[in-house]
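ingest -> fold -> write
write: protein_1
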Amino acid sequence: MKPKVSFICQNCGFQTPKWMGRCPSCGEWNTLIEEIVEEIPSPGLTLSSGAPLLYEDIKEIAKQRIKTNIHDFNQVLGGGVVQGSLILIGGEPGIGKSTLMLQVSRDLASQKKRVLYVSGEESLEQIKLRGERLGLAKEKIYFLAETILERILQAAEQLSPEVLIIDSVQTVYSSQLTSSPGTISQVREVTNRVFRLAKAREMATFLIGHITKEGSLAGPKSLEHIVDVVLSFEGERDHSYRVLRALKNRFGPVSELAIFEMSEEGLTSVANPSAFFLRERPTKEPGSVVVCTMKGTRPFLAEIQALVSSSLFMGNPRRMTVGLDRFRAAMLMAIAEKKLGYSLAGEDIYLNVAGGLEIEEPAADVGIILALISSVKNRALPPEVAVFGEIGLSGEIRSVTQPFLRAKEAASMGFRTVVLPQGNKDRVEKDGLKGVEVVGVANVQQLIGLFF
C-alpha cells in the first residue's frame, strides 16, 4: 500500500491531510508536523488466552508484585511492581529519572531478578561511570545501548528478563516508519509494541519519558491511556529533594507520594517528610502557619506562608499563589473580607507552600486564612500550633478525612496544640491521642478569635 503524507499535531495526535497553523483539536499553534503514515502489519501478539474464564479462576496478580528495597517507591506503585505492567515515568531532563531507575535495577537484581536496561541516550561506558557511584558493580544487570525498536524487542525476547527498562521512549524508533524519533507516530508505535510484549511475556516494563515545557508528558495523549501506570518525577534543580507521585495507577491509589533527597550516592528516601520540610521554618514570623495535610495514605506537615502588603497598583492588586489552587485562595480572601471584616481590596497578596510542595486538598483552608490574617495584623502564631480544616462559603469549618492521622503526625513532631474542625474533635479524642491539646472550631470567627 502506498504511504500517505499527513500532518500530525505533536501535542494531541490530531491528523489532517493539509497543514494548518493552529490545531483544531487542542488549539495549539505550529504543532502540526508533516509525517509519512504507513500501514504496519499486526505482529500477531494477543493478550487473551482465547477461552472465557470464571472470576474465581483468574489468577491473582496482587501476589505477584515485585518489591524493591525502596519502600516509598513500592508504596507509590501500590505495593510493588506488578508483573506484566507497563509503567511510564516522566520528568524534566536532569531531574534524576535515570538515576532512580538504575537504583531500582540494582535493587531488583539483588533479588536475583533478571533486569535488562536499554539506554538510547547514553553509551555503555557513560552508564558504567554513573553505575560506579550507585553500587551497580556488585549486581548482574544486563545493559544495551540501542535506539532501534526491533533490535530491542529481539534482545528482550532472547534474554526473557523479568524487568525491562527503556531510557527513553522518545529516543527509540521503529525502522518500519520513516518519521523521525520522538514524533507522535514513533512514540505511539514504540509504546504499543512494547505494551504487547510486556503483556505477552508478563514482563514488568518501565518507559522513561520527557515532559514538555508546559509540564505535560511529551508525546500523544493516548500514550497515557496505553500504559498501566503514569509516574511523575518532580523537583527543583536548586533543591536536593525530589517528589515521585502517581498520576495514574491501574493497580493502586493515585494519590500516593514519595520524597527523595539527591546526593552524590544517588537518591535516598526521606523517612520523615514533615521534619524535612519544616527544618528551616521561622518560628516567630507573621504569615507562617503549619498545616497537617495528606498525600494518599501518608500524613505530613507543611508550612503555608502569606505576605500581605499595600499595593502599588491602585485598583489592580496582585494575587500570587505558589503550590496552592489560586481559585480556592481567591475564595478564602473573599471570606476574610465578607465574614471577618478585613479589607484586602488594596493589598497585594502572596501565598506560598514552603519547599516547593503542592497542596490540593481543601483541608489546608484553615492554614491559608490564618496565614493571611497573621500577615495583615503582623502578629505571629504560637510556634507549637498546627491546624487543618476546610472552610465553606458561609464561614463554617467543615470536617475532613483522616483527622486522627493528621493530629498524630503533628504530635509526633512536637506540636502541643492542634486546631481542627469541631466535627473532627470527638473522633480524635475518642481515638485516644495523647500529648497534644485538641481545639475544635466551628466557624472562622471562632478560629480567628483563638489567636487575634
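write: protein_2
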Amino acid sequence: MPERDSSEVFCLSKSGYYPGWMKKSAFATGLLLTSAGLWRLFGPSAGGFGRIYPYVFVGLGLVYFSGTTKRIYLSEEGVIRETGSFLSKGKQVLPWNRVVHVTLVTRKKQFMAFFEKAGEIKGLKVLFDIDQEPQVRAILKNSCPRTKINTITQ
C-alpha cells in the first residue's frame, strides 16, 4: 500500500485566495509604473530621483503582490497555512492535538472556523464555503474527536 503524503489536502479554504486576473493586472500595472519611473530617471527629460520614487515603489509593490500566495487547508497534520512570495516560502502548522476549541460561525453563503490553540488565546481563522460545512465537521470528528465545537448562526 503506498504511503500517503501527510500534508494531503482534506478541505481547501477560500481564505487568502486572490483571483488570477487580479494578480495579472497587478503585475502589468506594477511593470508599467516601474518602467515609467525609470523612464523619468533615464529618459530625455530626466528629472532626478525625487520624481521616480512614487512610480518605482508602488510599481515594485504591485509586482511583489502579484507573486504572493496564501493557502489554508485542513490535512492529516492539522490546520496548515502556507504563504509564499518571490523571496520566501513559509508553512505554519496547527496540529490537531493542539486544537482545544473550534467555533463555527455561519453567515449567508460562507462560514468561518476559528481553531483555538491549547494554552493560548490565539488561533487560526479559516473561511470556507457553506457547502463545505459537512466535510469540515466530518474532518473535525475524525481528527480531533474530543475537541469542543461551538456553532454560531447569524
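write: annotation protein_2
The chain has two domains: 9-15+72-153, 20-66.
The mean pLDDT is 83.
pipeline exit 0
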